[in-house]
Amino acid sequence: MSDRPARPGPVTVLLDPDGRITGWSEGAARLFGHDAAAAAGALLPELLGRPHAAGHLASALKAAVSGHPWSGVLPLSDDGLSVSCEAIAHADGGTLVALTVSPPWAGGLELLNEAGRRIGSTLDLHLTAREIVAVTVPRFADAGAIYVLERLLADDDQPAAEADGSAVVRRLAVAFADDDPREWSREFPVNEVIVYPPSTPYARCLTTGAMIEFGGDAIQDTMARQTGRVIDGLLDHVSLLAVPLVARGRSLGFAVFSRKRGRLPFTAADTALASELAARAATSVDNACLYRREHRTATALKAGLLPAGVAAPPGLEIAHRYLPAASGVGGDWYDVVPLPADKVAVVIGDSVGHGVTAAAAMGQLRVAAHTLASCEFPPAEVLRRLDSIAQGLDAAQFATCLCMVCDPATLRCELACAGHPPPLLALPDGTAQRFALPHGLPLGVSDPAHPPEYEQAAAEIPPGATLAFYTDGLVESRMRNVDEGIARLASALVASRSATLEDTADGVLALLSDQQGHDDIALLLLRPAG
Fold first, then answer.
1. In Å, what is the CA distance from 218 to each residue of 177, 243, 261, 388?
2. What is the pTM of this model?
3. More confident residue, 395 or 133
4. What does the pLDDT average to over 183-187?
5. CA 188, 189, 194: angle at the middle one, nearest 5?
6. Long-range contacts (CB closer than 8 Å, 24 or more residues apart) made by 300-303
């Protein structure tokens, strides 16, 4: 099956026999630049500013109504539009005519196909903006830029223009044709925040939701008011379009395209193509903005929930590390809970998934685990109660978890596991082994009517040994399975043995640096002091 995007189909408008509009699609709105509210009930030639085309259209409609479908070119644009007219029966017994317009874009279909392949390949907002201008410059325009509302980037729930009609936007990407000798990046830097007054084409594009055509004198005047300088070369850009980026019914910003003197100015066919490009680009920009917002929310949430510091009880050294994934915030978590008599509880877990949902589930389970452990429940009972709590979380959520209670005075430990990777024990003789313990079901996956039974195992940490707790991001990848990853971690623990546990932790992560970035990583090391 081909992964090439489908070519945009023809646009259909419903007319009564007199040429009055009774049906207006989103495709027609993009093609002709008028929304459904403006089009409803209007005569098509007058709506398009082509009253002289009324006679030609009437002839085509008359033929269609008489039972003879008509096709040909009507003077409804500068270049003419290829249309077909066919009568259809209306529910009330009357007759309507479906006027189907073939997209007039010369070479535009190939450009749209390329846009479908290249735009939106990532959820990075700046890269998405660069992809848009890379597709359009120089094939469609001599210069292009993408502007997004600053309120949207500041996580405002309802991004919109200011109350006075001005536009506060951030320039995310800009491109000029390679044959342009000027160093435009100094004049139009990326990430610059600009306030455009209500009278500018850019602000009017946002407030009206319609494409605005203008000349180089408008942009020169705007720059002169903003900077007090006249920039040589701007007046060479004689034909410009400000195209709104609209997704899910809200304005995100706008794209600006320009052509220089010596190149044909933008035609009606070009503006139709620009509208189609902007519609596709807006979806990608919207997706990138939503991802950016969720990622920032999840990062802030997780930063507030992970322990800022871990206090080691007398007789134990503890080192811990957390590395977030490059592409999203996951559900890895850990905690060290002081208990009476200088005992300590260690809990580590991993909520499935990424983003806000996983971070929220992690936060609830971490707080619950901390509370249960501080109540001195044994590890198996902590997991049993955590499983009951996990049943009440989102149905798509489950988590692995491992809980241990240790007495540093005797180095005796009690452990229980809910589907989590086993701890590793690095011994002073240069060997490493898994800390054997029975595995139970992950939290939240069992039948609530038949809760799982978590077995508890007793063990002892040998003097001088290092006990390692970790999440699967450190041992699992597309290149190797979990067992191979655990063996690599065991070797890294032995090779990184150092006088301080902090250096050991750094050494392990350095040796396993190829694991970083793909998934969240949590690592917690314990070693008897002295």
1. 21, 15, 15, 65
2. 0.52
3. 133
4. 75
5. 75
6. 301/329, 301/356, 301/359, 301/360, 301/363, 302/329, 302/359, 302/362, 302/363
Q: What tokens does 204 get?
A: 């009017």
86-91: long-range pairs with CB below 8 Å, 24+: 88/14
Residues 6+ apart with CB under 8 A from 80: 73, 74
Q: How far is CA 46 from the centre of its chain?
A: 42
Q: Three-state DSSP class for 288?
A: helix
**Contact, 242 vs 278, CB < 8 A?**
no
The answer to whether residues 525 and 468 touch, using CB atoms and an 8 Å cutoff, is yes
Alpha-carbon torsion 42, 46, 51, 56, what sign?
A: negative
**DSSP per residue, 173-187:** EEEE-TT--S-GGGT
The DSSP bridge partners found for residue 25 are: none
Query: With 0-12 CB in 10 A as exposed, 13-18 as middle and 19+ as buried, what is 150?
Result: middle
Confidence at 5, pLDDT banded by 50, 70, 90: very low
SS3 call for 336: strand
Cis ω on the peptide bond leading into residue 138 (within 30° of 0)? Answer: yes
Q: At 491, list the tokens.
A: 């070797």
